[in-house]
Amino acid sequence: MNLLKTPVPANLPVDVSPETKTRRKEIILIISFLAVAIGVKLLLGLYLWRNGFVEYDTDGFTRSIIAWQWEIGKKQLGIDAWLPLQFWLNGTLMHFWPDLLRVPRLVNMLSSIVTTVNLFFIGRALFGRNAGFVSAALAAIFPWEIWFGLSGMSESLTHVFLTTGVVFFTQWLTRKDPRAGWLVLASLGFLGATMLRYEAWFYSAVYALIALVIALRRNEWGKPDKIKVVLALVPAFIFMAGWMYASWTDPAIGSPLGFAKITSEINGRIYNSENTSMSFFSRLVFYPQTFLTLWLPLTLPAIAGSLWLAWKPVGKARWYLALVWGEFVVFILTTLPFNNIAPGSARYPVSNLLLLLPVVAYLFERAFTYRAQAVRYAGVGLVALLLLSQVYATLERPRDYPDEATRQVAVWLNKLWKTGYLKPDEKVMLDLPASDGPQGNDFTRAYYSLPVLTNHPDSFVVPVNFDTFSAMVMSQTGGAPHVWVHLASAGGDLKPFKNNYRDVETFGDYTVGTVPIFRGAAVLPGDGIVGHKGSVQSGQPVTATADEYKPKETTAIWVTRPDKKVINLGNKDADTNGVLSISYTPDQAIAGDWSITIVGMESGRRAVGMFEVK
After folding, report:
1. At residue 474, does pLDDT exceed 60?
2. For the segment 125-149, what is each residue's pLDDT rounded down to a tens digit?
3. What is the C-alpha to C-alpha distance for residues 577 and 276, in angstroms, rounded to an integer?
């Protein structure tokens, strides 16, 4: 029986509109361009990392340690000169990947990549797609973004939140029918930035003022529309309000701006002469001068482009310039009453220069489209030179932090942990100058660098002074450390130490020692801690354990009773790891303090374990 079959039509091509095709091609072009730009960024970063760039400055290491301290519950983040979001984020990641060196760098490099993408969208919204491409290219090799991306600093995270806020703000600015939803998203971006650096507070204030002015000037908007704008701006101020309230209600601070006073005091202590000796005018122009000298091949076009757009505005460019330069002016005027010259002063205008990259892009994009061919060629050449100059500036960044001696000590310590000589939870004695003294910078470079470079943040003990350090290292019966590190600026005579440690060497201004000749024995029963006294009842055996002998070394062992009588226990060989354990039962019930002494016949290693017979 023949069955009638309905013929199946062949797959017909779906008609795609020219607009859709164009859109798809544009998306592919954008993704391809950004992928190349990001690839160049990563290659430059990799080159720097493999050629000695470790950290931007001390702040990066300090922030990594604070994040770790918060994660383990060792530090509660209260009102301080530093804001908490970076510590919360990095500390949370360290819970899953406890690496103080790599976690912050992964977060910052990813942030830097997103910032590059954000600059494309900002440039495109303001001046068109070509300006977006140039903005992204400039952002990809923006020197500070690469340096910060390889560090533990907070700027990369701040920039990604800040530029995210600006992306949505420019969408609201440039759309024909702007909706408050864009401002909500913008405010959330600014909110994140305000939880990272105080400069973002000024951006948020200026951003809100601009949005309110624009809303009030739109006569076609009714009252409900303007109320929506006001409500959309609220998220940007949530953290600021909470932080100021916490500062106000903190008994130790008692002022909404108490955190500003804390920051001012720190700046005054570190840069006292700069903040007290400069005239009012000098302090007023300090940051404009700092901005100008960041990188002249970039700051000069940024200023020129700003002046051009202020004179001949394009689209909403004037409002954008008001945001970037308005923040700069508010920042300068607001901080003038305080000690506003700080260790990180050179970094403060970097965000302004970053946000002016679309302005630089527009300036050159104008040259590309100029009717005179010579101008077009000049524009292309200048852009190429600018990009090359940024690559040059990026690669010329000094890679001397931390200094070579500190790096060598970190490598030396890492080797001791890797070989098992230092146990994971063992402490390293670190003798440093006073943190608040004239050699405070030396304290900082060692105290924050070594824990991060070794990824052992809880393994360093800093005695209060050299005398305390010396007493611990020179102890012949106590818990002399297996390893100690001394910085020359801490002072003190180290010559006697060479009689107590077999290996003493120097790295620059550091002296390090390992393999103690005199170190107590751990005694059981007791807490088993070297240098702590054991306790036994009459007739109960006691065990003493000591290390640092040579493998299979023969030792001489004796016991000293409370009445000073010496009992010879003969000889015993250490094991292949240089560890020896000996058990002894007091043969007479003599109450008091006893000791077991174990001396290496070849190395001279001497261990004494104390125990009390009750």
Report:
1. yes
2. 999 999 999 999 999 999 999 999 9
3. 60
b/e string for 299-323 if b means 16 or more Cβ within 10 A? bebbbebbebbeeeeebbbebbbbb
Q: Give residue-wise pLDDT tens across range 62-85.
A: 999 999 999 998 877 776 778 999
Going by C-beta distance under 8 Å and a sequence separation of 6 or more, which residues neighbour residue 353? Answer: 291, 294, 295, 298, 299, 302
CATH assignment at residue 599: 2.60.40.1930
Q: According to the model, what pLDDT value does residue 13 have?
A: 61
Q: Which two tokens stand for residue 563?
A: 């009445």
Same domain? 558 vs 583: yes
Sign of CA dihedral 92, 93, 98, 99: negative
Residue 325: both structure tokens together: 């330069």
Query: What separation in angstroms does the CA of 541 have from each of 447, 525, 527?
Result: 43, 8, 15
Distance CA 340, CA 366 (A): 38
Q: How far apart are CA 57 and CA 315, in angstroms?
A: 40
Nearest Cα neighbor of 397 from 35, 89, 10, 48 is 48
Residue with tokens 């990604």: 160
Contact 362, 131 (CB under 8 A): yes
Pair 96, 133: CB distance under 8 Å: no
Q: What is the pLDDT of residues 264-295, one digit of tens each?
A: 676 666 666 566 677 788 888 889 999 999 99
State which H helix or E strand residue 557 sits in.
strand 554-560
User: What radius of gyration do the chain's Cα atoms show?
Assistant: 33
174, 118: one domain: yes
For 6, the token pair is 């309905």
Domain carrying residue 564: 522-613
Tally of CB atoms within 10 A around 11: 6
Contact yes or no for 503/515 (Cβ under 8 A): yes
421 lies in the same domain as 562: no
Q: What residues pair up with 461 in beta bridges, in sequence order?
A: 429
**Does one domain contain both 184 and 253?**
yes
Sign of the alpha-carbon torsion through 142, 143, 145, 150: positive
For 293, 300, 446, 495, the CA distances from 434, given in Å and listed in that order, are 35, 43, 12, 22
Kindly provide the b/e burial profile for residues 103-119, where b requires at least 16 CB atoms within 10 angstroms of the residue's own CB. bbbebbbebbbbbbbbb
Domain identity same for 189 and 226: yes
Helix, strand or coil for residue 399? coil
> Taking the C-alpha atoms of 262, 268, 274 and 279 in order, what is their torsion angle to the nearest 10 degrees?
70
What CA–CA distance (Å, rounded) separates 593 from 301?
81
Q: What is the mean pLDDT of residues 79-105?
A: 93
Backbone phi and psi for residue 314, each to the nearest 5 degrees, phi listed first: -120, 125
Taken in order 449, 453, 455, 460, the sign of the CA dihedral is negative
Number of folded domains that form the chain: 3
Amino acid symbol at 471? A
Exposed, middle or buried by CB within 10 Å (0-12, 13-18, 19+), for 224? Answer: exposed
The pair of three-digit structure tokens given for residue 583, joined into one six-digit string: 């058990």
The helix or strand, by DSSP H or E, that contains position 225, with its residue range, turns out to be helix 223-233
